[in-house]
Amino acid sequence: MSGPVDETGTLDVPADGGASSVGREARLPSGPSPRGRRVVALVDTDSFAKWGAHLLAAAPAGWDLDLRTVATPRSASAKQLRSAFRGLDARLAHLRTAPPTPKDVDAVVEELRVDPPDAVLVSLIGPVAELVIDEVHRRIPDRPVLVSGLPGISFPAKWKGIFFRARADLFVLHSHREVRAYEEMAIEGGVEPHFALATLPFARSASASASTSASTGAPDATGVNVRDAVVFAAQPSVPLERVDRALVVEWLVATARQHPEWRVVIKTRAAAGEHQTHREEHPYPDLVPADAPANLVVESGPMAEHLDRAVALVTISSTAVLEAAARGVPALTLTDFGIGRHLINEVFVSSGLEGDSVDLVDGRFGTVRPSWMQDNYFHPASDDDWQRRLTELMVQRDAGTLVDREPARRSRGGVLRRAWERKNALGGADRSALGWLALVIGAPIRTTKRLARKARALVDPPEPVVVAAPTSQRAASAGAGSAAGASSAAGGGSEGLGDRQQELVAGGDPG
């Protein structure tokens, strides 16, 4: 008998037991009763911890959930984890008060070997994700289903995101547009597509949130709800250069002076000494001038708490803008530095959220266009298929028919090469003698390749990606028609695969 699979991994049977089917005998399902599923998430950095925990919390109510942190060079601090774990359901709510202590990769994989769950959500930066996925394949005979993905905005598609997670059984993305772009790139790179759709945890219930959150705020000392903050969502590497980041601070200072009735909040993701998914060379707090107005403040903490009292959110391209849009909070994605993949803002073309520093200082913010939402993060929940596909994979595991996927890495080198990749992923967290040997041999080779790439770039620099789009809220209404065309002008959303190794340089974007 065949039929749809429910979320417990059993077949749905019609109420009449199938008697209405012509030529078939009506039978009730036999065999053991369906068992609950157990899924473990592995996280490391601040953004992967937040995404992994909140995606896990969206799993069916009957599933048993667990979460563990992995010790890596960029592991989130306990404070960052408590912030990331805000708002989880009852199964994971304890994590906010008692976040798990990071354990090294070998200890985590050994725990999975001794007591294998049905599935593991590998919510780790790219090189560590690849390492853990490989270790699970090699060390656990009856391995769990491996699910991975990328937190936040993942458009345009990036080859290294696919490369590091090619052996995962399922790769979770968050918009129809992303799925199309990643499928195209995977096929071009010789990787069988394995992408599933899930609503971004921070963009859920856009319509419901818009009707409630936008009209309320955070209570003040008298119990009255207050909305008085313009929140700037800082990103560690966008924009990258110090001069550009200092310019952003100048705009925020001007906004604070122009609007003394507002608190202008530079919302950071890490305190001094804490790590982030992406390295931050020039932290915003260091760029705030001594004579900044008192209503310009630097704060950290959960983004949701800041949005509770926000009149608007401003960013270059942070995923927080989607969280704001889901709540009905006006927003602005600054286009003063241009539009391109290095700014992660191509996806916002024709969204209605684009603006510039003049809009910011003048207090003009945008609202997301309904025509943009369906293809970009605000699709109907019924379009999500990650839970169904994960269930199907767990059923295959139960039956012993789960097929191992091929890695994208084709490099040779055997044990020494694996030691190099492990050292590259874990840095100082890997203390093995073989890892140090691989580093001694591999580091000069890597340096030589980097210098060669830089030399080629000087001779033949890449052409900048330019997208025609409204650059201010003042032009947005007049340019709404042309903006839709500009969206397609941005291309298919996939970077070229010409020099794949350049996308896999250690120490860069962790993928």
Describe the structure concisely.
Helix content is 35%, strand content 12%. The chain is an alpha/beta fold.
Please give the number of β-strands. Answer: 14
Please describe the biggest sheet, giving its number of strands, its sense, and whether it closes into a barrel: 6 strands, parallel
- Mean pLDDT, to the nearest integer, reads 80
Overall geometric form = globular
Strand content: 5-15%
Top keywords for this entry?
511 residues, disordered C terminus, 18 helices, 6-stranded parallel β-sheet, disordered N terminus, alpha/beta, globular
Give your account of this protein's structure.
This protein has 511 residues and is of the alpha/beta class. It has 18 helices and 14 strands. Helix 5 packs across helix 15 and helix 15 (414-426) crosses helix 16 (433-459). It is globular.
Note the topology:
Layout: E1 38-43, H1 46-57, E2 64-69, H2 78-84, H3 94-97, H4 105-114, E3 119-123, H5 126-139, E4 145-149, H6 159-164, E5 170-173, H7 176-188, E6 195-197, H8 206-212, E7 218-219, E8 225-226, E9 229-233, H9 242-258, E10 263-267, E11 296-299, H10 303-307, E12 310-315, H11 320-327, E13 331-334, E14 354-355, H12 357-362, H13 370-373, H14 386-399, H15 414-426, H16 433-459, H17 473-476, H18 480-489
Parallel strand pairs: 1-2, 1-3, 3-4, 4-5, 5-6, 9-10, 9-12, 10-11, 12-13, 13-14
Antiparallel strand pairs: 7-8
Helix pairs in contact: 1-2, 4-5, 5-15, 15-16
